[in-house]
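Question (not urgent): is this output format expected?
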Amino acid sequence: MIAEGNADDKLPPASLTKMMTAYMVDSELGSGRMEMDELVPISVKAWKTGGSRMFIKEGTHVSVSDLLKGIVIQSGNDASVAIAEHIAGSEDAFVDVMNQKAVMLGMKNTQFQTSTGLPHSDQYSSARDMAILGSAIINDYPENYHLHSQKYFTYNNIQQYNRNRLLWSDSTVDGLKTGYTAEAGYCLVASSKRGETRMIAVVFGARSPAARAKEVQKLLSYGFRYYETTKVAEGSTGLVKKKVWAGKSEEVTLGIDKDIMLTLARGEKEELTTEIDLPDAIKAPVAIGEALGNFRVILDGKVIEERPIVALNSVEKAGLFKSLWDSLRLFIISLFG
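Got this back:
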């Protein structure tokens, strides 16, 4: 977190709740349990749900693709209830899974009671938690994130616009969600990417749509001015080679499985140091991807990132004679150093 104020206060989330509803849809699609062209029956409850609507009709069938657009772009309460019933059988059951997902993501100050964000006395979230959820939507299911940048969606011959004003005023903003109720005020979670740096800003309880957009824009401008995302280490390339005892090959190449990208204050990159922690001896067999040590990134004496060092190639165990010979050599080394 770069900047924060009352980030853990429990506040009514309004339609920011639909970010979790959309994340649940993404999860079902990603697991193969649901398809975009799958047709969803529309219940009387979904049809009658008030507030912002996609204008689906009871007794019809609507594709998952259209419902997801209705949730993300139009903030449709009716679409949210319809997809909740389709995934879990009822909205209440769906909300239970929403809360389980929140716990899994580390959202410590969130409790959902609806799939829509319509007012409920025991429904709350926090700015920090919504930032966590926004990051999960972007990073876990990037294939669907483009929907968040769409400015309009037409369904049932009714065109509605995305209420995120920053999509019009800032070309680097590409999502995520607005929210409003009388109790919650005007809320906004927005993300912007400039180069390799992505920022997420969250505002709860603004007095108007213009005010929430202005405050989020201030946060984004601050973040991009003073911070940048930089690649500290490259994944899937060798960091070090290490001897392998009792193996058919004499050494294994070790590295990290994916790039380490860190958002740092401008100028801090030059102050970073790294360290590699490996065992004194590595014995065969070694499997590709096997964790054999740790790679640490250090700033001002503190570890700010730690990743497992894994084998980038496999090493099979040698035959009996070489295995015994290497075991003897290791024994001697352990005795005499």
